[in-house]
Amino acid sequence: MNIELILLQRHGDERGGLIALEENANVPFNVKRVYYLFDTKPGVRRGLHAHKTLTQLVIAVRGTCHFVLDNGRERIELSLDNPAQGLLVPPMMWREMYDFSEDCVLMVLADQVYDEQDYIRDYDQFLQYANVALSAPSSLPG
Ligand code: T46
């Protein structure tokens, strides 16, 4: 599975760090929404869903967490621990996040506004969708 980690240029200097995010530049889509996850309690697993059409860029702006990505055929795990690294999460990708450090702030840029209808929150249902998407991407069920 090809996972894209985008290296974000640091503009900071001796005073401190600074990273700029620009749509259709280092963020490869139009940004419709930004949200962030923080204060995640110890032992909690978040995510546990896929999106039918949403593309997102996920950045651990502070702290660390582990990320699982699963396209229905392959599953990969990686650590997000670098504010200069953005994980591009395409549609039809099951995601789980766990082992959040106490200070972890996960910032997410999304190409669509929030829509609960875009979520697939059941893994078996995701596998059904994923099989259709992997064999005929243009004929996803509604
Ligand atoms: C994702 C991972 C990385 C809203 O009202 N608006 C929003 O924009 C979002 C993202 C969520 N919500 C509501 C929906 C739920 O009642 O906030 C509550 C928590 O959302 P959820 O359980 O989906 O959160 P996570 O941490 O499991 O997942 C989130 C995103 O939902 C998801 O798209 O990819 O972060």
TrEMBL record:
Enumerate the UniProt keywords alphabetically: Isomerase
Q: Where is the Sugar 3,4-ketoisomerase QdtA cupin domain?
A: 1-130
* Top-level taxon: Bacteria
- InterPro entries from the UniProt entry: QdtA_cupin_dom (IPR008894), RmlC-like_jellyroll (IPR014710), RmlC_Cupin_sf (IPR011051)
Q: Does the keyword Lipoprotein apply?
A: no
Record GO terms (molecular function): isomerase activity
Q: Keyword Iron: yes or no? A: no
Q: Could you identify this protein by its name? A: dTDP-6-deoxy-3,4-keto-hexulose isomerase
